[in-house]
Amino acid sequence: MFGFSAIHVIGIVAGLALLYQSYRLVAARKEGIFEFLLWAGFGVGLLVISIGSALETVDLLAALEGGLSALGFARGTDSIFFVSNLLLLFVVFYTYVQLVESRRQLSDLTQELALLRYDLEQRTDDED
Amino acid sequence: MATQSTRTATDNDTPSDDRDTARPMHDRDTELSVLAIVPAYNEAGTIADVVAETSRYVDKVVVIDDASTDGTESRAREVADGVVSHPRNMGVGGAVHTGYLVGVREEFDVVVQIDGDGQHDPADIPRLLERIADGADMVIGSRFLNDSYREYSLVRRAGIRFFTWEVNALAGLDITDVTSGFRAYTTALLADLSRPENSHWALEQTLEASRKGYRIVEVSTPMPPETDGSQFDLGTFLKYPPRMIKTTMKVLLFR
Predict the structure, then answer these.
(1) What is the DSSP string of B59-92?
(2) Could you tell me which residues belong to the region Disordered (chain B) (predicted)?
(3) Is the N or C terminus of chain B more exposed, i.e. has fewer CB atoms within 10 Å?
(4) Is the interface score ipTM higher than 0.95?
(5) Is the pLDDT score of A22 beyond 50?
(6) Torsion sign over Cα B147, B150, B151, B157
(7) Of B88, B90, B98, the CB nearest to A115
(8) DSSP-based three-state secondary structure for B220
(9) pLDDT of B60-81, one tens digit each?
(10) CATH number reported for the structural domain that contains residue B146 in this entry
(11) Is a pLDDT exceeding 60 seen at residue A93?
């Protein structure tokens, strides 16, 4: 029924790790719902592909190839690479946007901290 | 939103020697309250003289120390009315924006911006302020309205010319020195401008102010190039085009 090889085990472990870590972070309120769904989705996808391709009774890759050939992909593996790259591009873009926003917020905080110190010094000088 | 909707004309001054150094601006009849901001990064050798001279022409001088490591902050505290000290370096765009916030929050009428390296002569401040009193929203001190630009390297002159031409073309202006950091503004304008990038703030600021309909004028202000803070080499020139494209896109699309 199962034809596990090392690559299947790696995929399953990675999928479970993603699920566990994303759940742990959202439970601790260290990430938002959107981030949880994103990473948990990757985890579920990894599990489905790893387990599905290891099932001898269900030829997942063949099913994928059949379904995706209707979209114009020549081979199932091509489509997997294509979709994977699209997802990675999405993740990189999302991370970049978050990084830019974090840098802007850091600049704002730096500025406000400096201005607060300045205000305090000015008030102290006025009182003196 | 623009506070004055019909102002895009540029009003270049011809070179002039009519500096009124004997009469500080805050003694004049304009009744404008004037804050001078001095963005400084490692200018310990010049900051005290710049502040002392500038204070003759304005009501208050505040130094924006951009995390200097050479004692600029302590030197500035000896002479300035106030010092805003960034905990980390933010670049000149961040430093000038911090100064603008001081001017807006303390409700000054006008903010004068002058470099801490001694490149700008504080004695020119009254002439900048005169143009503000005449109705300008932003006054730029230009080195290209006198002979001081001839002392600059060919690369630096070409760079300034190119970017000034580009801003003029994009904004319908007729200015000569868009990269100049010697400026005076009404705080109404500053309150309406977005926070600029940490680099190339002058281009972004000028474009945005023009697009919002503010009146931008220039006056002739000599600026000798031989100061430590004047860095415009070939590397800087090569970095400018992509940054200029980025700045231009940002202003045209989102501001």
Answers:
(1) SEEEEEE-S-SSSHHHHHHHH-SEEEE-SS--HH
(2) 1-28
(3) N
(4) no
(5) yes
(6) positive
(7) B98
(8) strand
(9) 999 999 999 999 999 999 999 9
(10) 3.90.550.10
(11) yes
- How many structural domains compose chain B? 1
For A14, A105, B70, the CA distances from A34, given in Å and listed in that order, are 20, 20, 46
Tell me, rounded to whole angstroms, the distance of Cα B246 from its chain centroid: 21
Q: What is the number of residues in chain A? A: 128
Q: What's the confidence (pLDDT) of residue B179?
A: 87
Contact A111 B101 (CB under 8 A): yes
Domain coverage including residue B214: 10-254
Distance from CA of B16 to the nearest CA of A (A): 38
Establish, for the pair of chains A and B, how many residue pairs have beta carbons separated by less than 8 Å.
36
Q: Look at residue B101 and tell me if it is in a domain.
A: yes
Name the closest residue on chain A to residue B90, using Cα atoms.
A107
Tell me the pLDDT tens digit for each residue of B110-158.
Answer: 999 999 998 899 999 999 999 999 999 999 999 989 887 777 777 778 7
The answer to whether residue B250 sits within a structural domain is yes
**Concatenated DSSP letters for B160-219?**
HHHHHHHHHHHHT---S-TT---EEEEHHHHHHSPPPPSSSHHHHHHHHHHHTT--EEEE
Nearest alpha carbon to residue B202 among B142, B144, B254: B142
Residue B228 vs residue B148, higher pLDDT: B148
pLDDT digits (tens, 9 = 90+) for B80-105: 999 999 999 998 889 999 999 999 99
Residue B196 identity: P
